[in-house]
Structure formats: C-alpha cells, structure tokens
Amino acid sequence: MKSKQEPVLSLHNVGAFYKRKRGVFGEPFWAFKDISFDLYHGETLGIIGRNGVGKSTLLRIMAGITKPNKGTFVNYGYQVSLLSLQLGFIHYLSGRENAVLSGMLMGLRKKEVKAKMDAIIEFSELGDFIDQPIATYSSGMVARLGFSVAFQVDPDILLIDEVLGVGDAEFSQKSAKVMQDKIHSNKTIVFVSHNAVLIQQLCNRVVWIEKGVSKAEGDPETVLKEYHQFLHLA
Amino acid sequence: MKTARIKLDTLLRYNELIIYKTYADLRAETERTYLGFLWWIFEPILYMSVFYVFFELLLKQGTPNYVPFLLIGLTAWQWLKSCLSHGAETILGASGLMQHIHLPKVIFPIILVLTDTVKFFFILALLLIFLWGYGYSVGFTYLALPVVLIVQLLFTMALVFFLAAIVPFLPDLRFVVENILLALFFMSGVMIRSDIVPEAYQQYYYSNPIVIIIESYRDILMHNVWPNGSALFIIGIISLVGIWLGARLIARFEYIYPKIMV
What we know:
The complex is a heterodimer of chains A (234) and B (262). In chain A, the strands form two sheets. A six-stranded mixed sheet of chain A has the order 5-6-7-3-8-9, sandwiched between helices. A three-stranded antiparallel sheet of chain A has the order 2-1-4, with helices on one face. Helix content of chain A is 36%, strand content 27%. Chain A has helices at residues 55-62, 95-105, 110-124, 139-152, 169-184, 196-202, 220-233, and strands spanning 7-19, 28-40, 44-48, 70-75, 80-82, 157-161, 188-193, 205-210, 213-218. The relative contact order of chain A is 0.18. Chain A is an alpha/beta fold and 234 residues long. In chain A, helix 2 (95-105) crosses helix 3. Chain B is mainly alpha-helical. Chain B has one domain (2-260). Chain B has helices spanning 2-31, 39-58, 66-87, 90-93, 107-134, 145-166, 173-187, 199-205, 209-223, 229-252, 257-260. In chain B, helix 3 (66-87) packs antiparallel against helix 5, helix 3 packs parallel to helix 6 and helix 6 packs parallel to helix 10. The radius of gyration of chain B is 20 Å and the shape is globular. The relative contact order of chain B is 0.13.
C-alpha cells in the first residue's frame, strides 16, 4: 500500500494551445495556461470549471494522448486511461466482436476481454443479442454494451469526463451506481464535471479551473464554496 | 529488465490489436453486402472480364498474349493503388479514436495495408488460375514469387507511411494523390511493354521501382525466367529505409496528431 503522500501524477504550470487554422497554421490559442496540482494514490480528485476551460484537453494530457506546450507533466509510471464508451465500435460486427475490439483498444489483451465476456454480457443484459450485429441494436442496447466493456477496463488511474450513467432510465441508474462504487473504492480517479453536486458527493479533493488557471485546490467544501461565490459574482 | 518486459508486453499487445482490427475491418466489409467475401472474388472476375472481352475478343490486339500481360500488371498495380489511396487517410481517419486512447499512430496504416493485402491475395489466386487456364504453367521461377511480393509489400508500406504521416497536415493532398496515381499508372508499364519506350528514356523508365516489380511478375508468371534479383534487392533495401524513416516521421508527430484534428 502506497502512502497517500506519494503523487502518481504531477502537473506544474502546465499549459496547452491549439492552432486556430486547420491544425498547424495560424495563431495559437491557449486551452489553458497555468495548471498545477498533484494526484495522489487512492484518491478521487474532482476537477471543476465552466464549459470551455479546457478540461477535456487536460484529461488528454493526463492520459498521455497529447503533451503540454509548457510546464511539466510527470507520470510516475502508472497506467492511465480515459473512460471511453463505445470506443472503436464497428456497426456491422456483433456485440461480442465489438466488445473484444473495444477492450483491446482500451488496453486489454484479447484473452483478458474473453475472460471478462460473461461479466460483460451479464451486466449489459444483452443475452443472446451479444452475437447479433450491433447495427440491429437499439441505441440503448449499444450504450449498455459500451458501458459494460469500458467498465471492465481497470487502469491504475481512471479519468472520467462528466458521464457516469448511460442508457435508458433503469440502466442509467445501475451504471451510475457501479461507477460510484468504483469511485468510492480505493481506486485513483479523476472526475471532471461542471456539476458541483456530483463533485461534492464523489470527490475527496477538488481542483477548480478558471480562465485556464488552476484557481483553487483543496477539500470539496471550501473549493466549491469559492467556486459558487465566483459564479454569483461573475 | 522490468522495463524491457513492459516494452515486450506492449509490443505484443499492439501486435494482437493490429491483427484483430485487421480481422474486424475485413469482417465488417463482408458483412456490409449480401454476398460478403464472395465480392473479393467476383469483383476482380468482373474487372478482369472487362479487359478480356475488350482486348482479346473485341479489339483482337496485335500483340500476342496481351491479356495475361495486362492482367498481371493490373493485379500488381491494384494492390499498390488501393493501399496508397486508402492508406493516405488512415491517420486522419483515426482522429476520433486517438482523442480517447494513446496508440502509436503507425498502427493505423499497417492495419490498412494488411487489410488490402488479404484482399489482394484473393485476386492473385484468381490471376494464377486464369494464367494456368490460358496455358501458362508453374515453373521453378515461381520460387521467386514470394520475394517479389515481399518487395512490393515493403515498397508499398514505405510509401503509405509517408503519405499517412503528411495527409493530416495537408488534407488537400488526398485529391492530388488520386491524380498522381493515375500518372504513375501510365508510367509504370501496366499497359505497355518496355520496348515501346524510346531508347533515350529507358534509363529513367527503369528507375521506377513499380516497373521493375511488375516486370518481375511477368518474368516469373509468363516467361518462366528469374527476375532481376539485384534490382529487387535494392528496392527492398531502399523500402526498408523508407519504412524506418516513415515510422520515425509518424512517431515524431505522435502527440501532435490528436491535437490538430480535434
């Protein structure tokens, strides 16, 4: 068991920009300019901020998908992944094939996905439909499969962007429930949202990002209070 | 020691992913139509028939054995062409996927080349059946066929890597590629014999690797002579260097691609 004081990821004055014109040309615009915080083992860190403050870009940096343009980001050797639903799904393939493909894309080995297949089928409640092409599924069924696969992927650090529960009302509750159980467990999780209530419920610690800068960091109550005060002033 | 193990694990995982994704893409293609994978056979049959009817039956071309000559060229050309025109868009096309996971981007062109190569093997089999039906027989030189296939595969792979690497930055290039391919088609001896090319241009003509590759197929399949080994060797080596450089180029932009294609 690692001590809680040992960071698993660190960000120091991290900034990232995009180019205005198609990709490489034109002026840079900064998604964020100066973000610093550490992520510790076993905690659930909430990141709160209004829309368009670069939360998704921040997650991409933490997941090792892109690199920051300034500052330093350190991953102390952990496997980080973004919770992605229906990743790489192909319309014409069966639920089972899509589960294997999606699981493999998210970092599992083929035999690992196959070992988890029963759990996936059970959780998604797809039954015999699992061997039908997902083109024949309702959108709710695809959502159920997507969630069930993504949930089986178990990285050291899980990054969650807004979504907890998916699918129709019933499954949405069920998926949100297991997600919350996972968050409450000893897993290291980063949860990004603009929903203060959820953040308050789920997180041990919160970082608030405003205008591309990490403005406050600390226990949820204090940070969220500041955030609310700011929103009312703004 | 531990990092070496992790590296090996990762490499194995990517290999497995490449193979499964290739399988998945091929299967998705067969599922899209009623006849499924039979189209990989019917389509080339229809395609070859058009040439057969036109050149052999209608035009009664003066050159003897023009149809086998042409079909060999077309078969090899189609393989290269489909890899290049599809392959150019592979990294660009994976932009959605790469917002969610980190994968070495070189995986995407590799998957495409494998997919198109599997389909090519169906066409190659048909071509061989046609040639045997036409009266050509299997000779010793068939032993060199795998070598020519591998050289073409390497050559294709190198070109696809470069194209796939650049297209995300210059998507407009895709429209140019089709026309460059058309020009290349006329310059690669698919339809014409090399002795038609004027003496003065022969040297340039033969500096085109595709000319050498296509002639190698004809040497083996029609004339039962050994292909030009040293030329193939040189193309193979240059292609390997090209693959290495192309992969380096793609790796150089590894973290840029997800950013430019949001």
